[in-house]
Amino acid sequence: MSTFFTAALNRAERLSRILLSLPPGLYLLLFFAVPSLMMLFASFRFSGEYGGLAPWYYIDDGGITLDLTLENWQRLFETDIYLSLLIKSLAYALVTTLICVLMAYPIALMIARSQKRYRDLLLLLVILPFWSNFLVRIYAWMIIFSPQGALTAALNAVTSSFGLEPISLMFSSTAVIVCLVYVHLPFMILPLYANLEKHDHRLLDAAQDLGANRFQCFWLITWPLSLPGIYAGAVLVFIPSLGIFAIPDLLGGTDGIMIGNVIKQQFVESRDWPFGSVLSLVLTAITLVLVLVAAKLGSPAGENNGKK
Amino acid sequence: MARNSAYPSKFLIAAGSLVYLFLYVPLAVVVLFSFNDSKLNAEWVGFTWKWYHKLFQNGDILHAAANSLIIATISALLATVLGTLAGLSIYRFRQKWLSALVLGPIAMPDILIGVSLLLMFILFNATLGMTSIILAHVSFCIGFVALAVQSRLSGMDQSLVEAARDLGATPLQAFRLVTLPLLKPGIIAGGMMAFTLSIDDFVITFFTAGVGSSTLPLEIYSMVKIAVTPEVNAVSTLLMLVTLVLITALSRISPMVLRN
C-alpha cells in the first residue's frame, strides 16, 4: 500500500475520531466537569452577603489580592454535627444495602431457578415498579405510614394490648430505611440475578451427589459464587442511598435527616454555597472511593469462576 | 434423585412472593385510593372519578405536565445524538477519558450533579428555567444512550463491516449502509430510555428549575409537602400508566435494553 494512501486513511481516521468524540466530549466537559471544578473552587471561597459567593479577588492600589480561605473546610471539623451526620448517613445506607441483600437473594434465586420461559416475565415484574416515578414510590409510603393509616392502627392495637405507648411510623428513621430499601431494591435484584443465572448447576448436582444438604450447597457454592453480583448491587444501592434527600425530607422528620438534606439546605435555604460545596465534595470523595473499590472487587479475575 | 438446582424450593417461592408483594402493595394502595371517595387516604369509602376530574381542572398540574413533555422530548433528542456519537467513539477508539466523562454523571449521586450545575448556572448569570433543566438532563442522559449503543455494537458481527469494505464500500458507506441500520434499535432504545429518565427526574430538576418551569415531579413534591390528597394519587396513577405504556413500547423495540 502506498504511503500516500495510508496517510490519507490515517487522516480520515483522525478526522472521524474528532467528529465523533468532540461534541459529546465538549458537552460533558462544560456541563459535568466544569461545574464539578467550580464547586471545588467554591469550597475555598467566602460566601456572599446575600448568599451565593463573594468575589474571589479584589483589586486595590497594590494590585490584585486573592480572597480565598480554608474556613469552610475547618468548619466541617469544628463541631461533630456534620461528621456524626455523615456517619449516620453511611449507617443508613449500609443498613439499606444489607436489607436489600436479604430481600433480593430469595427473589433473584427464585427467578434464576425458574423455568426459562417464565424468567423474562418474573424479571419484568421486578423492573416495573422501579419505573414508576421516584416521588410516587415515596408518596406510597407516606400513605402507608400515615397516622390515620391501617398499618399504624394495627400496630398500635398490638402495642396498647401490651400496655405500651402508641407509636408513630411516620417521621422516623424506620420509615426512611424502609423507603430507601423500597426505592433501591431492584438495583440489587438485577445484578444478583444476572450473576446467579450464569452459575453452572452441575456444581450443585455434584455437591448433592457427594452428600451436601441444601444449606451446604447454598453456603459453600452458590453464596461465594454470587459475591461479585452482590458487590455490584451493593454499589448501585449504597451510593444513591447515601446522597438522597427527598426520602428523609418527606418521611424522616427531624430525626431522620441525612447528609443530602444538609447539602440541599446549604444551597437552597441558607444559601451558604462554600460550605454546601465542602459537604458535596466529601460525598463525591466517598462515592469515588466506593466506585474504585467496587471496580477492583468486580474485576474479571473475580468473576470468571462458575460460569458456564 | 430430585435435583435441588433445577427448580426453586417451596421456601424460595414463598420468600420470593413476599418480596413481590412488598414491591407491589404500596403502588396498589396509591392506585386504589385514587378512586376513593374520601379526602383521607385511610379507609375505603366508595368509588369516585372526582379526583381525576379535579386533576384536569388544575392549571398548575397541566402546565407542569406540558413542561415535562417538552423538556423530556428535547432532552431525549439531544442526548440521543450526543450519546450515539459518544458510544461509537468509545467503542471504536477505546477512549478512556470520554468513557469517564460519559459514566461520571451516572455514577455520581444526583444531588451532586444538581448542586454543581446550580452553582455554575448562577455564577454565569444564567436564568434558571426550561433551558437550564434541559441542559442538565442531557448531561445525565448521554451516558445511558452511549451504553445502549455500545452494548449493541459489541453484540454486532464486525465481519459484516469488513465484508462491506472488501466489496468496495468506503468507510462512510460501510457505516451508513451496514453499521447504522444494525445500530438503530440500540439508538431508539437509548433515546426512549433518555425520555423516560428525563420525564421521571426529580432531584436534578429540583436544583435547576426556575419560576414557571415546574415539572410534574416538582409539582407532586410541592403538593405532597403541603398535604397528602387523593389528587396526588390520581396524578401518580396516570403517571404510572404513561410509564407502563412507554416500557411496553421499549420492550417491543429492544428487549435487551431492559435487561442491562
Q: What can you see in these coordinates?
A:
Chain A is built from 13 helices and 2 strands; from the N terminus they run αββαααααααααααα. Chain A has helices at about 5-40, 70-80, 80-115, 115-130, 135-145, 150-160, 175-195, 200-210, 215-240, 245-250, 260-270, 275-295, 300-305; strands spanning about 55-60, 65. A two-stranded antiparallel sheet of chain A has the order 1-2. In chain B, about 75% of the residues lie in helices and about 0% in strands. Chain B contains 12 helices and no strands. In chain B, α3 (about 60-95) packs antiparallel against α8 (about 170-200) and α6 (about 130-155) crosses α8 (about 170-200). Chain B is globular and about 75 Å long. The mean pLDDT of chain B is about 90. At the A-B interface, α1, α3, α4, α5 and α7 of A face α1, α3, α4, α5 and α6 of B. Chain A: It holds the Pfam family BPD_transp_1. Chain A: It is found in: Cell membrane. Chain A: It is a multi-pass membrane protein. Chain A: This is ABC transporter permease.
Order of helices and strands of chain B: HHHHHHHHHHHH
Summing up helix and strand content along with how strands pair, one would put the structural category of chain A as mainly alpha
Largest sheet of chain B: none
Question: Average pLDDT across residues of chain A?
Answer: 86
Assign a percent range to the helix content of chain A. Answer: over 70%
- Summed up, the helix count of chain A is 13
User: Which structural category fits the helices and strands of chain B?
Assistant: mainly alpha
Uncertain runs of chain B are none
The chain pair forming the largest interface, with residue counts per chain, is:
A-B, 89 and 90 residues
- Structural domain count of chain A: 2
CATH superfamily of the largest domain in chain A: MetI-like
Tell me the number of strands of chain A: 2
Helix content class of chain B: over 70%
- List the quaternary state of the chains: heterodimer
Q: Give the integer mean of the pLDDT values of chain B.
A: 88
At the first level of CATH, the class of the largest domain in chain A is: Mainly Alpha
The radius of gyration over CA of chain A amounts to 26 Å
Strand order of the largest sheet of chain A: 1-2
